[in-house]
């Protein structure tokens, strides 16, 4: 019975289409017509009975719904954001080991998050990097307060806003913030007590660096960004008075005003990617010839989907920072940190990978 009804319905539809097509040819000439036009023609055609008109109504409503669906487009997405996490872990255990050594546990972790906005001529790029690493020794001959040592500790926030002036050239405003999570110590022998004294080298917001500048940003390629900010204000914050001299301060906050140049490279090829951020700053207010240099490089090789070999380096040259040598003489010195780790990597959301 169902097959008979279906066949009859198809015959009715075919009859309607042929009748309306003939009327359309007489009315409009040769050419394609839609179900909507067929419906309009069928209304004026008194030769169609009520059943045929019902079939035309059904078919035309389906056609109109399909057109409406095709015309609907997904709303534009102006935000892209995501998170990358990396964790590297190692553990050493020794029992009756004749060659010596000490048991220890080490951990290095990195969180790299981004949130970027782009609409018309405006862009806003934000990146937050949090890294922390430590080595916990279990050597019985080492005092408890010296068994824990940090290998990495960093809070880094970078935000760049831009308005396109011409192709690849933007008016820009750049904000940057850097500090660390926890205190870093050194242990020096005390001749009078025969013990080791613990001295603080740095701490959260000791130092803390905040900079804000306006200028021009040039992007000749997707992987390269050159930013020149001739009007940049810096604040060097040292909340611990004992560390003021170490970081060139005579009070808790030291203000600087000068020019800043920043070059960012983000490049990838198959399983290899590298990112580099080089920042140069000259202080107009004091010794402008002394250029402050901050250069961070991250390179990684994806061995599997989640296993990654990573190299991270940080280089600093700042004549305001005084560092003791082996003889205890304080002077500006080149600072360099290098971390190689083999660990697990996960990405969430729309993490922006290098181009």
Net shape: globular
* SSE sequence, one letter per element: HHHEEEEEEEEEEEEEEEE
Oligomerization state: single chain
Q: Proportion of β residues? A: over 45%
Rg, please?
34 Å
Signal peptide: 1-23
Pfam families: DUF3078
Protein name: DUF3078 domain-containing protein
Organism: Candidatus Coprenecus stercoravium
Write a compact overview of the structure shown.
It contains three helices and 16 strands. The chain has 355 residues and is an alpha+beta fold.
Description:
This is DUF3078 domain-containing protein. α1 packs across α2 and α1 packs across α3 (50-71). Helix content is 17%, strand content 53%. The chain has three helices and 16 strands. The mean pLDDT is 84. With 355 residues, it is α+β, with helices and mostly antiparallel strands. It has helices at 2-28, 35-44, 50-71, and strands at residues 79-92, 104-119, 122-137, 148-166, 169-179, 184-189, 196-202, 208-221, 224-237, 253-269, 272-283, 292-302, 307-317, 323-324, 330-331, 335-349. A twelve-stranded antiparallel β-barrel has the order 1-2-3-4-5-8-9-10-11-12-13-16. The protein has a two-stranded antiparallel ribbon with strand order 6-7.
What is the secondary structure topology, with strand pairs?
Layout: H1 2-28, H2 35-44, H3 50-71, E1 79-92, E2 104-119, E3 122-137, E4 148-166, E5 169-179, E6 184-189, E7 196-202, E8 208-221, E9 224-237, E10 253-269, E11 272-283, E12 292-302, E13 307-317, E14 323-324, E15 330-331, E16 335-349
Antiparallel strand pairs: 1-2, 1-16, 2-3, 3-4, 4-5, 5-8, 6-7, 8-9, 9-10, 10-11, 11-12, 12-13, 13-16, 14-15
Helix pairs in contact: 1-2, 1-3, 2-3
């Amino acid at each position: 019975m169902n097959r008979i009804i279906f066949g009859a319905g198809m015959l009715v539809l075919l009859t309607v289409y042929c009748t309306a097509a003939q009327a359309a040819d007489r009315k409009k000439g040769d050419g394609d017509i839609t179900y909507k036009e067929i419906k309009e023609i069928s209304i004026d055609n008194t030769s169609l009975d009520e059943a045929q008109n019902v079939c035309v109504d059904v078919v035309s409503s389906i056609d109109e719904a399909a057109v409406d669906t095709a015309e609907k487009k997904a709303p534009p997405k102006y935000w892209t954001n995501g998170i990358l996490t990396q964790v590297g872990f190692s553990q050493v255990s020794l029992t009756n080991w004749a060659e010596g050594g000490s048991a220890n546990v080490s951990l290095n972790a990195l969180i790299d998050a981004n949130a970027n906005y782009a609409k018309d001529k405006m862009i806003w790029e934000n990146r937050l990097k949090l890294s922390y690493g430590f080595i916990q020794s279990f050597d019985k001959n080492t005092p408890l307060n010296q068994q824990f040592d940090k290998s990495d500790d960093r809070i880094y926030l970078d935000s760049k806003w831009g308005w396109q002036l011409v192709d690849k050239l933007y008016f820009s405003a750049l904000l940057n913030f850097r500090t660390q999570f926890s205190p870093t110590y050194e242990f020096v022998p005390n001749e009078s007590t025969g013990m080791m004294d613990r001295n603080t080298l740095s701490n959260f917001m000791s130092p803390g660096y905040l900079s804000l500048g306006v200028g021009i940003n040039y992007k000749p390629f997707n992987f390269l960004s050159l930013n020149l900010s001739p009007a940049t204000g810096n604040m060097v914050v040292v909340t611990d008075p004992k560390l003021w001299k170490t970081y060139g301060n005579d009070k808790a906050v030291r203000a600087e005003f000068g020019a800043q140049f920043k070059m960012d490279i983000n490049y990838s090829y198959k399983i290899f990617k590298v990112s580099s951020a080089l920042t140069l700053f000259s202080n107009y207010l004091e010794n402008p010839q002394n250029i402050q240099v901050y250069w961070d490089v991250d390179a990684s090789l994806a061995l599997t989907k989640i296993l990654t070999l990573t190299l991270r380096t940080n280089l600093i040259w700042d004549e305001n920072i005084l560092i003791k040598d082996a003889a205890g003489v304080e002077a500006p010195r080149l600072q360099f940190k290098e971390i190689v780790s083999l660990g697990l990597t996960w990405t969430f959301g729309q993490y922006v990978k290098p181009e």
